[in-house]
Write a structure and sequence with these properties.
- The chain has 148 residues and is an alpha/beta fold.
- It has one domain (6-145): Rossmann fold (3-Layer(aba) Sandwich).
- 45% of the residues lie in helices and 20% in strands.
- It contains 5 helices and 5 strands, in the order βαβαβαβααβ.
- It has a 5-stranded parallel β-sheet, sandwiched between helices.
- Strand 2 (34-41), helix 2 and strand 3 (87-93) form a beta-alpha-beta unit.
- Helix 3 (96-107) packs parallel to helix 5 (130-137).
- The chain is globular.
């Protein structure tokens, strides 16, 4: 069996991602592993901000949003993973699949546990699948938890 000492679990604060956190917590208990919970903040495409809002401060908005998401991440860790021995939260900015893979590698994750959102058809075609991209790119095993 693979030694599992560090589990990376991405969250987008959705119910499916909370289900993945529960699985990650159970695996962490069994293996005595640390959990690293990551949330990826997608950057605002500056070119898409209408000129009408020329006074809009993108950097300040990203900063305030980041602070809010950091609090939300800390709250999720406290309420959903409070009994788990070692848990850390990481907030990064970028494209979700690429950042999840990067953070997993940098953190030395032995396993990534993430949810799928169950999109199919046009939704999958238009938005793709973060989970699918992570499975294809990660340097460690990936356990996907199917959305219900």
């Amino acid at each position: 069996m693979l030694p599992i000492q560090r589990i990376l679990c991405p969250t987008d604060f959705s119910e499916p991602s909370f289900a993945a956190l529960e699985v990650a917590a159970e695996l962490a208990r069994v293996f005595g592993a640390e959990i690293v919970v990551v949330h990826v903040l997608t950057p605002i495409p500056v070119a898409e901000i209408p000129a009408l809002h020329a006074g809009f401060n993108v950097d300040r908005y990203q900063e305030v949003l980041g602070e809010s998401l950091r609090r939300a991440l800390d709250e999720v860790i406290a309420t959903r993973l409070g009994g788990t021995a070692t848990v850390r939260g990481v907030l990064v900015v970028g494209h979700p699949a690429a950042e999840i893979v990067r953070v997993g590698h940098e953190e030395g994750a032995d396993l990534i546990v993430l949810s799928t959102h169950g999109r199919s058809g046009v939704g999958h075609l238009l938005f793709g699948s973060v989970a699918e991209r992570v499975v294809r790119s990660a340097r460690c095993p990936v356990l996907t938890i199917r959305a219900r």
